[in-house]
């Protein structure tokens, strides 16, 4: 975690960032989640704020401090994240979806703790809404950046997400590679834009990667409106 002296290249821009995992409850003592710690999203929020942006951070449950000058909204489930993101989408300039949103949640949830009993227990799961997909479908003036967490053929699957979700850019991470992915302080990524810019970022701190992503985004925005 580091404060860099930044040029205020995002001054006047409203940036919405999602971070962390979501948590999908079965009963008061059990839930499904994933290994996301929120570091990448928080690094993006911190660097965007220090570049002068007005930053809203929609965060799943994480153990991180709120970066300086960032407006943080805490959520737990994919559904709550959906509500917060979609209701704020209209007046955002840049949206970055770094959160690891659950794809499935338990179909039934219980207010009372379930007691264990002998034998197996099968949990039926249902799909959550794909927040990013919906943002892509509703996109107007926003610059929309998604993440792709992959273990096999990262570039192929990442490109598919860029196209399918109508993104302006995708940050592809191989979460199975050394030093990258969940919980690490570093990431190696491929940044691909819809307009055809491709950047390979070697293993670097998540703060440095965040700066690169944001600078790359500003360059794209400037090339749009000369
Ligand atoms: N995402 C989302 N809502 C979901 C699932 C994913 O907004 N319900 C977003 C993530 O925040 C990320 C992007 O979609 O920016 C890609 O997430 P990823 O898990 O890599 O891909 P999926 O589209 O969920 O496909 P799969 O997990 O099958 O690879
Ligand atoms: Ca997923």
UniProtKB/TrEMBL annotation:
Keywords of the record: Decarboxylase, Flavoprotein, FMN, Ligase, Lyase, Magnesium, Metal-binding, Multifunctional enzyme
Phosphopantothenate--cysteine ligase, as annotated region: 15-226
Cofactor note: Binds 1 FMN per subunit.
UniProt catalytic activity: (R)-4'-phosphopantothenate + L-cysteine + CTP = N-[(R)-4-phosphopantothenoyl]-L-cysteine + CMP + diphosphate + H(+); N-[(R)-4-phosphopantothenoyl]-L-cysteine + H(+) = (R)-4'-phosphopantetheine + CO2
GO MF terms held by the record: FMN binding; metal ion binding; phosphopantothenate--cysteine ligase activity; phosphopantothenoylcysteine decarboxylase activity
Cofactors, names only: FMN; Mg(2+)
Protein biosynthesis among keywords: no
EC assignment: 4.1.1.36, 6.3.2.5
One Gene Ontology cellular component annotation held by this UniProt entry: phosphopantothenoylcysteine decarboxylase complex
Annotated pathway: Cofactor biosynthesis; coenzyme A biosynthesis; CoA from (R)-pantothenate: step 2/5; Cofactor biosynthesis; coenzyme A biosynthesis; CoA from (R)-pantothenate: step 3/5
Residue intervals of the DNA/pantothenate metabolism flavoprotein C-terminal domain: 10-216
Lineage: superkingdom: Bacteria
Positions with a binding annotation for CTP: 103, 113, 147, 161, 165
UniProt-listed GO biological process terms: coenzyme A biosynthetic process; pantothenate catabolic process
Protein family per UniProt: In the N-terminal section; belongs to the HFCD (homo-oligomeric flavin containing Cys decarboxylase) superfamily. In the C-terminal section; belongs to the PPC synthetase family.
Record's function text: Catalyzes two steps in the biosynthesis of coenzyme A. In the first step cysteine is conjugated to 4'-phosphopantothenate to form 4-phosphopantothenoylcysteine, in the latter compound is decarboxylated to form 4'-phosphopantotheine.
Identification of the protein by name: Coenzyme A biosynthesis bifunctional protein CoaBC
Full protein segment contained here: 176 to 401 of 401
């Amino acid at each position: 975690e580091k404060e860099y002296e930044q040029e205020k290249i995002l001054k006047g821009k409203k940036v919405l960032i999602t971070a962390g995992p979501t948590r999908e409850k079965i009963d008061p003592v059990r839930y499904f989640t994933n290994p996301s710690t929120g570091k990448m999203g928080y690094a993006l929020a911190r660097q965007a704020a220090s570049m002068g942006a007005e930053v809203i951070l929609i965060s799943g449950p994480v153990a991180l401090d709120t970066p300086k000058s960032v407006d943080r909204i805490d959520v737990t489930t994919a559904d709550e994240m959906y509500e917060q993101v979609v209701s704020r989408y209209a007046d955002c300039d840049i949206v970055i979806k770094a959160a690891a949103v659950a794809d499935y949640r338990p179909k039934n949830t219980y207010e009372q703790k379930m007691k264990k009993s002998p034998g197996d227990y099968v949990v039926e799961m249902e799909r959550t809404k794909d927040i990013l997909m919906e943002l892509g479908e509703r996109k107007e003036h926003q610059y929309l950046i998604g993440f792709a967490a992959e273990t096999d053929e990262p570039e192929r699957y990442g490109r598919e997400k860029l196209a399918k979700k109508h993104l302006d850019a995708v940050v592809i991470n191989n979460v199975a590679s050394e030093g990258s992915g969940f919980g690490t302080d570093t990431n190696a990524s491929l940044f691909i834009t819809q307009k055809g810019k491709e950047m390979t970022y070697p293993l670097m701190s998540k703060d440095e990667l965040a700066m690169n992503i944001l600078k790359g985004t500003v360059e794209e925005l400037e090339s749009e409106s000369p």
